[in-house]
Amino acid sequence: MVRQSKAARISRVASSGPCQLPPISDWTFEAVLELVAREGFETGCFDFKAGLTGSNTERQKLQSGISWTAGGFANSDRASVLIFGIEDRATGKSPRDRIVGVSCTGDLRKQFHDIIASIHPSIDFETVPQPIPIPGSDRCIFIVEIPTSRRGPYMVDGRFPVRTAGGSTAELNWDRVSERMRFNHERCAALLRLKIVVDRARARVNEIETIGLGHFTRITKFDPIALRMALDSAAVAISVEPELFDLLESLIEAEEEVNRVIDYCYRAKGADHFAKRKFEEKLPAAISSATSASDLIAQILSESDCARRE
User: Nearest to residue 99, comparing CAs of 88, 108, 87?
Assistant: First the structure.
C-alpha cells in the first residue's frame, strides 16, 4: 500500500469538506501551502491571520480581532484552527507569497494565551508542538486549534461572537444567548439526574459481582426501565454526546441480559452450567458499560461547568 505524505493527507481532507481538518500535530509547511492554495476563502472552521502581536500602532486592533475570532470559534459546534503568518487573499499575492510568517522568538503559546485573556469563561486550545519553519526564512507559521466545547456561551468584551459557515464572525443576539444558557442549565440538570441512576446501576453491578450467581436468590435484579426512562428524559441533553448514548444503550442491554440469566436460574431452580456461562459473558459488559458511562458523565459535568451553573 502506498503511504501518503502528511501534506497529501491534509490536502485531501481539506478538500473533502469545509470543516474536516487534520490533527494539530500533522501540520507541515507543505500542508499549509496546500490549504492556502486550495481554499480561496476562509470557512467556518479556519481563519488566516497575518500576525500575532503586531506593531505598537496596530497591536490592540489585531489582538482584539484575534480574541473575537477565537471566541467565535469557541461558540461554534466544531473544532477550528487559527493559522498565524498568512496574509489575506485581498493582497493579490500568490499563495506562497501570502505565507509571511510570524517571529519564531518568544513563547508563542503564552502570547496567544495572554491575547485571549478577555474571553470569559476561558477557552481551551492546543497548538502545534513547535512553530513551523518557512523554508528560506527566519520566520515561522504558528497554528492554534480550538476544540469543540461543552461550556459557553463565551463572551468577549461584553459581546458573544459566533463563527458563521461563510467564514465571518458575527455577534449572537440576546435571544440566542439566553437560549443557549437555558439549554446548558437544563442539560446540566438532566445529566445530574442521569448520573444518579447510572451510579445506582454501577453499585448494583458491583453488588451482583460480589454475591455471585451461586447465591442468585440474594441478588436484586437491575432496573433497566428506570435507566431507559432517565435516558429518554435526557435525550435532548445528550444528543451531542453519541459516545455516552451508546454506552447507556449498551448498559441497558447488558442489564436485561443479566436479568434474564437470573430469571432462568429461578425457573431452573439453580445455576447450571448454561447459566454460569451466560452470566460470565454478560456481567463484564454491564460492569464495563456502567463504569465507563458513570466516568464519562462525570467528565462531561466537569467540562460543562455544571457545578457553577447549579
Answer: 87
